[in-house]
Write a structure and sequence with these properties.
The complex is a heterotrimer of chains A (about 1000), B (about 90) and C (about 180). Chain A is an alpha+beta fold and about 1000 residues long. Chain A is built from 21 helices and 52 strands. Chain A is elongated, with a radius of gyration of 38 Å. By secondary structure, chain B is mostly beta strands. Chain B is built from one helix and six strands; from the N terminus they run βββαβββ. The chains are: A alpha+beta (about 1000), B mainly beta (about 90), C alpha+beta (about 180).
Amino acid sequence: MSSYRLSKGGLVDRMAPLSFTFDGRSLQGFAGDTLASALLANGQMLVGRSFKYHRPRGILTAGAAEPNALVTVGRGGRTEPNTRATMQELYAGLEAQSQNRWPSLDFDVGALNGLLSPFLGAGFYYKTFMWPAPLWEKFYEPFIRKAAGLGKASYEADPDSYEKSWAHCDLLVIGAGPTGLAAALTAGRAGARVILVDEGSLPGGSLLFETATIDGEAAADFARDTSAELQSMPNVRMMMRTTAFGWYDGNVFGAVERVQKHVRDPAPHLPVERLWRIVARHALLATGAEERPLVFGGNDRPGVMMASAMRTYLNRYGVAPGQSTAIFTTNDSGYALARDLEAAGVDVVAIIDSRPSAGVGYRGKARVINEAAVCATRGRKAISAIEVRRDSRTEPIVVDALAMAGGFSPIIHLACHRGAKPVWSAEKAAFVAPAGLKGLEVAGGAAATTNLAACLGEGAVRAQAIIKELGLSCPPVALPKVEGDEDTHSARPLWSIPGVKGKAFVDFQNDVHLKDIGLAVREGYSHVELAKRYTTNGMATDQGKLSNVNAIGLIAKARGVSPGEVGTTTFRPFYTPVSFGALTGAHTGHHFQPVRKSPLHDWAKKHGAVFVETGLWYRSSWFPRSGEQNWRESVDREVLNIRKNAGICDVSMLGKIEISGSDAAEFLNRVYCNAFLKLPVGKARYGLMLREDGMIYDDGTTSRLAEDRFFMTTTTAYAAGVMNHLEFCAQALWPDLDVRLASITDQWAQMAIAGPKARQILQKIVDEDISDAAFPFLAAKEVSLFGGALHGCLFRISFSGELAYELAVPAGYGESVADALLEAGKDDGIMPYGVEALSVLRIEKGHVTHNEINGTVVPADLGFGKMVSATKPDFIGKAMLQREGLAAPDRPQLVGVVPLDPKQSFRSGSHILAKGVAATLENDEGYVTSSAYSPHIGSTIGLALVKSGPSRHGEEVVVWNGLRGESTPARLCNPVFFDPQNERLHV
Amino acid sequence: MASLVPCPNCGRRPKEEFTIKGAALKRPAAGADASEWFDYVYLRDNPHGAYEEYWHHTSGCRRWLVLTRDTVTHEVAACRDAADGSRLEERT
Amino acid sequence: MSEFRPILRPVLGTKQAVSSATLRLSPLPEGTIIHVLARPGEEDMVPFLGSVAQTAAHAVRPVSPGQWFIVGEEPMPHKEMKSLFAALEPRASGVDQSHGRVRIRIEGKMASRALSKGTALDLDPSAFPVGQSSVTLIGHIAAHITRVGSEAFEIIVLRGFAESLWDDLARMSLEFS
């Protein structure tokens, strides 16, 4: 016989039948079922195969700790492997597949592993796969890879959405069982901001299968009424289907809410899962306790189940485990199950109690066998009999289900996530959380409190104390009256059972059995952390929720010490597995990272720009025109046109910082290595910022717009970093200076207008006289545009080496102004250009960027040695720049490179070698930092950092690119390829 | 997953809003000798326990803070604005 | 080209408000935002700023120690702004951020729930009452949040990030729209 649905009872809705499939077979359940309860109701006791030996496995628990009943739910992109059938709510159309079997669950070839078991014991891969080494790649690894793992992930994209959220509360209650409900109610009535989370679909925890009454009301009704009151309170948030999985610094708790894992077709406006970060002033852990299995032969056979799980299926889901059951118990909880089974009309054949006498007055029909143990089970894919051992004699008893009640282990994972170690309580025969945790208390079953009235009382009293500690007032607490509850205090743990026959499993999910633990101890791996790694006990998706304490007990026994001395392995988040989807949240696809858009983005797009990602920015690379075959044609045209006519380029991404205050000039003097104190109002100056170690950090121009007001520009890449750095200097280094910093990067649309015709075009829109006399090179000032319709800033600075300006206008007007300039310069041949052309122009002029400012160069390396002030008393980097090595003559320094044959080219990153030497690290002379095709030179040109570079102009070298196998004869030269006298700047 | 930093201006905020610079050391005087500068730029104590660090509330008030953090427990014992209050200790 | 009149292009100009019974997300007009930075040591700046900014059309929002935003619905003419800046001196300097920052309004019963998907700020009225401002991360983007009503918030964000933040806020509001 197998499990079946009772004709009445339980919290399932018998008026709402649901169809689902298991391995393609169509089955029926009810609303309110889990997949596990529905499978049991259909007599499906075999639900999977075990990890290593492929043994038939059934449903062991009714909750989060389930090690066996792992199935794959859903299809396509919604395929979710390793779903615990005990946690999966049933819905119409649910599709579940068993795992770890081939070709079918009933006939599984992998079960042959069971025959190989002598070779698959603890540490088998360390021993078996040691040699011969060549077999690793071809044989062992593929074998292990195929054998390892449980369900299979889908290769299809997940069609659903996920998100994250923060929440805040005075009191977070974790677990909505009797303790948690009582605590939440107390705190809620006191007016505190309460969040109550529970991983189940219904609040109540153990109340949902409890037969005791509370204030004369059925336990499940009490749970329903209490949660209804909680839900009516605006200061209380109840979050069901939400697993608190971790406790983090700052009293933040991580939780995952399964918003739509219980529906077939998730609504698109809701996420399927939501990751919560809950900031709690205080938390109460009311997670209850986990029942421990007993370690006897064949304890993994389908039909063997935890006693509390059997009671849950019976009372909450109306599902009987079989026709004739036995209960193997070490404590009184087994008798509560016996009573409930008998009340439901299920035969209890025997109660096997390891103790000399039962602790409660059991008056049922079952035969009670004291001082006895189950030492083995019989059956193939389901249990058919047990062997009971008493006084060295063994008696078989025919059963179709067996419950095991090995005592309770408080669920204290979260309490130990921040480094606290559990302590062993001999009195409670359990590991409990240590006292004195800050911001978290443990109550109820999680604190090894075992009876219902005590749990309800403890929840209320602890909540009251916390509320008072938080400075809120709390009305007196009325404790409800409980009737019909049994004290299920665990008498004494039974780690090992005499006369065990066959494999007695300690860790069901990892197929770790009694002998493996013994082997680990004998081979010297008896430290709990070593035993875990050696045997794999406590690993994988259930992280040893059922197995760890038993393993510790067995190790303790083998070592002749107390479990406390063995100790536990480290508890780490997550309590149960959390999907990558939930951890990623909404940051996928379009929302993966923000896009930072220039105010001229749409202007550039309108003119056909091809964009390139630069950090979060999209910069226009070039502007192709019809007939151009490739990007080089576009870039060459843009470059030639700028040197002949004019071009306009978006440079809004440059960092812009307004620096004001009476000490602004002094401040700049300290952050730049060159002098700024005496920069005249109306002038711009190129500045080099160093790091404290003397290396160049960033460069840019800073203009003095008024006596104590400066407009600084930084490079695009270092804009944020420079702002942070300046704030550090102002706040942490020199708080006595009156200097005020405002980021104005986004305020201004900034465009470079470059080329011999730049002035005549610009003058059409600028109201002030910008002739060379009135507005010479490096002039900078606020200007009025379009007859006073708009105001902006104009700077006569040049990156291209041409007559050039940068014009900043309020961002919202950027597009309009850029278009006005195109219109104004139409007859002068103005064209938009992108960063590629900009790059060619600056390489032609030997201007550096962060390609050259690579973190290892000092000003002299780039030819800026004379810029560094010798007279300033202090500036960032001054002291360390004095170091002898930084003035060494053979440092890599800036130089130009051209190929000997103009038809040849080379790439940035290529190395410079002396002619005729081997390409070795010792012979490396430096590398090409920037390169481009120069239409003016008619060949590729490059900038390079080469040892003693400036003294080697004219030397023939080889540019070597090992990655591409390229070797190009070249000549070192002056890094300024175009207009070395800067005549074009000053027209 | 989470960790909150008590910004004296903004209250407790997640660490993602901050940028960490490292040890909060006093910058040597301009004319200090080379070894003092070398210590300031390169040498760190890496203590097991309390450590003073510069943190910047980059996505908040944009103030630089001096945070006393326990390197073992991550507990923050104190946090003040870098421009305020007690001066940094000289390294000995 | 003195006859040419430049045209303002609001960065969220093409965005449609997201609106439902419990939530409304809408771009605010690109009016005036003045960033005020006080001289170190200045105290009692708020009444001073109130008097300088004068009209009820402008509100003062704290940004960080010694810094405020003065915000207004209408763009402030160039001359007026210059004289306001002058009036701030020497106690503070003013920086025009009217184009550098963009304002978004989110309001309704579920506004704080939607925002909590991005920010770790405790938006409960007991912790973040009307008139309170704070700079915080919303997802990956830093923004300035002010509670402007019992169920209404104003968000100020850098112009370059405005579209991305809008898209994020719209996604965060999806559940309530």
